[in-house]
Design brief:
Radius of gyration: 21 Å
CATH architecture of the largest domain: 3-Layer(aba) Sandwich
Shape: globular
Largest sheet: 9 strands, mixed
Number of helices: 16
CATH topology of the largest domain: Rossmann fold
Number of domains: 2
Structural class: alpha/beta
Order of helices and strands: HHHHEHEEHEHEHEHEHEHEHHHEHHEE
Helix content: 40-55%
Low-confidence stretches: 293-310
Distance between the termini: 39 Å
Strand order of the largest sheet: 1-2-6-5-4-3-7-8-9
Mean pLDDT: 91
């Protein structure tokens, strides 16, 4: 396990430039850090890696842009926390796709406490909203920080119920963008008494494609996810699925079978989710687990690259590129299958996929799957 450590200003700036460069996502970030040992060295290597993947116009995030983002965040009282730092949420750091950097506004110490996520319908019923506020308050009084997504309805009710004891709101856009606008007052309350977090740059307005990524953070923060009032095709069920994949406990509040908003939660219960009628059900389900955090290696703080990581045989890589690219298609393929089918060493496959991703030719999917990008 890697030791957590604080970053100096210059290193934090390099981390921000790296994650803000073209086609660098959380998994790519970790692979680059593992191979090159530092963000500074990875930044220097990016253009050549992208060129080998087929992109000769790769954009490295300028230092001035990163400095401007950090200054703007500081101006609203925020700070960037890196996944290797002690204040980074431990449960989230255990994930392979943990955000390398989080923008945080509010009380950063809350991120180190055990969390329970509560999610549900944006058009929550009066009873559902009242129950959510009560459950969130009871869980908060029991020592948990309540995490949710600051959406209208159930999410907002969860934040209101837990505001006195501690709540964390995960933003789908920049941490400075209130969405929906009707939650402006709640946003201010959380900034003053809780914590607002986002992996997105300041000023980014939420779009539909941002919400699944936001949901993985909501579930990743928590030891358990509770679903309250969700339709069968809701984002809340996506969060529940992500929670299961992340090894979190999935819980649900049963509802009237005549109400479409109850069907998602009822389905989860049929599939084995813990039935929740009050805080005692949650505490009982978590008893014996320690209600702590999954074993976490600080997110993207790999050991420095060793000699074996520094050099790969370019002739062997050249031979492997066409073969590995030919194995990819529009349909997602498991990485293990590519490794087996290619017959090339894992280090070569990893490097070639990294080059393709930086070139914008590779897309990653949940469950360790990859495909060619849609424009191929």
């Amino acid at each position: 396990m890697n030791e957590s450590r604080p970053l100096g200003h210059g290193e934090r700036l390099d981390w921000l430039r790296l994650i803000r460069s073209d086609n660098v996502g959380p998994i790519t970030f970790r692979q680059l850090m593992t191979r090159f040992g530092s963000a500074q060295d990875a930044l220097e290597a990016l253009p050549d890696l992208a060129r080998r993947g087929g992109n000769r116009s790769f954009r490295v995030c300028p230092k001035s842009a990163a400095e401007k983002e950090m200054a703007a965040l500081a101006k609203i009282g925020g700070r960037l926390i890196a996944s290797c730092e002690p204040q980074y949420p431990p449960a989230l750091a255990a994930l392979a796709d943990a955000p390398p950097l989080l923008s945080v506004v509010g009380h950063r110490h809350l991120l180190g406490q055990p969390m329970i996520a509560m999610v549900g319908a944006r058009n929550g019923s009066a009873n559902g909203i009242r129950f959510t506020e009560t459950l969130a308050r009871d869980l908060s009084e029991a020592g948990f920080v309540v995490a949710s997504g600051l959406a209208r309805g159930i999410d907002a009710a969860a934040h209101r119920g837990a505001i006195d004891g501690g709540t964390t709101a995960v933003m789908a856009g920049g941490v400075d963008i209130v969405y929906p606008a009707e939650n402006q007052s709640l946003y201010r309350d959380i900034a003053e008494r809780g914590a607002l977090i986002s992996e997105m740059r300041l000023g980014v307005r939420p779009q539909a494609r941002h919400f699944p990524n936001r949901n993985r953070i909501v579930s990743g923060l928590a030891v358990a996810v509770i679903v309250i009032e969700a339709t069968l095709r809701s984002g809340s069920l996506i969060t529940a699925r992500l929670a299961g994949e992340q090894g979190r406990d999935v819980m649900a509040v049963p509802g009237n079978p005549l109400d479409p908003r109850a069907r998602g939660a009822n389905k989860l219960i049929r599939e084995g989710a813990v039935l929740v009628e009050g805080a005692d059900d949650v505490l009982e389900a978590l008893a014996g687990t320690g209600a702590g955090h999954p074993a976490a290696e600080p997110g993207a703080a790999p050991p420095a690259a060793g000699p074996a990581a520094q050099e790969l045989d370019e002739e062997a890589l050249s031979t492997a590129r066409d073969a590995i690219t030919a194995l990819l298609g529009a349909a997602p393929t498991p990485l293990d299958e590519i490794l087996r089918s290619s017959g090339f060493p894992p280090a070569h496959v990893t490097m070639i996929l990294l080059e393709l991703e930086l070139a914008g030719r590779l897309q990653r999917h949940p469950g360790g799957q990859v495909s060619l990008a849609f424009d191929q």
